[in-house]
Amino acid sequence: MTSAPHGILLVDKAPERTSHDVVARVRWLLGTKKVGHAGTLDPMATGLLVLGVGQGTRLLTYLVGLDKTYQARIRLGRATTTDDREGEPLGDVVDATGLMDQELEHSLSALRGDIEQVPSTVSAIKIDGKRAYARARAGEDVELAARPVQVSRFAVTGRSAEGPFLDLDAVIDCSSGTYVRALARDLGSAHAVGGHLTALRRTAVGPFSVEDALHVPARGEGDDVDLPLQGLGAIAARVLPVLPVDEEQATALGTGRRIRSEVDVVPAPASLARRDPPGQDRPVAALDASGHLIAILGREGSSWRPLLVVPVEARC
User: Fold this and answer.
1) Which of 82, 106, 246, 314 could pair covalently with 87 via S-S, beta carbons 3.0-4.6 A apart?
2) Which CATH class is domain 232-316?
3) Which CATH class is domain 68-205?
């Protein structure tokens, strides 16, 4: 009998597949029900999905707040009901091909930094317990409040014209919870021409790159595929500060006990894009001499309290 798998899987999602389809497929291929994700992608989008398997699902809590990087194509000249190509056209087509780079840069600058963004009406945000997209599809008028997000980069890397439409290729670095569709909508609104997203690819989640991700074949594409999982210790060390622990401390943490340690915490990489609430101590990953994740810890006075304990059989 083989042991249950545990770890993190980086997947390069193919177009026109839902994130839930990918999760279900990985469950079947790995023979386990314990598979979750650290943030979905729309069916039209491609790119990086971070999946947790087994005890890796518990680590996802510490990955969902990581910043994201996207490559996007934005079409200016018409808005849609969903702010992307899947929606119905809104209003008349407006010739946007005359927009100059300087005009676009002025509007882009207003969409960078700390901004208040109104999410798309077909987002997954809940309103009184029901998803916004479900209410919109039921014909309800959906009004969502603006939310604070951060866009550290919104750069146009190319432009082309197709009839009256101006297509912009862009690279976007943003905080978790930012809607790129809404950025496309707001850029079009700024020039009174309408805008929507026609292509989206997520290339990075925090320190994780789509270049290190793999393709998961859909049903009918074949089942003979290797899905190598990344160990929990290696992943935790890339997103959290690390506290090295000895065997005695690992045993204590494994039973849920607090520990004291005179060892200095190793800071997380400077490039880490995890955003913790102001005034809250960042959780720390307790790793043994082999680099295995023992627990996630929180500071409590002069001791460390386990917030998450990894069972011995799942330590990797």
Assistant:
1) 82
2) mainly beta
3) alpha beta
Please, what is the Cα angle at 17 between 15 and 19, to 5 degrees?
115
Domain spans, the chain: 68-205, 232-316
- Active site (annotated) includes residue 114: no
Active-site annotation holder among 12, 42, 84, 173: 42
The pLDDT tens digits of the residues spanning 208-228 come to 999 999 999 988 887 778 899
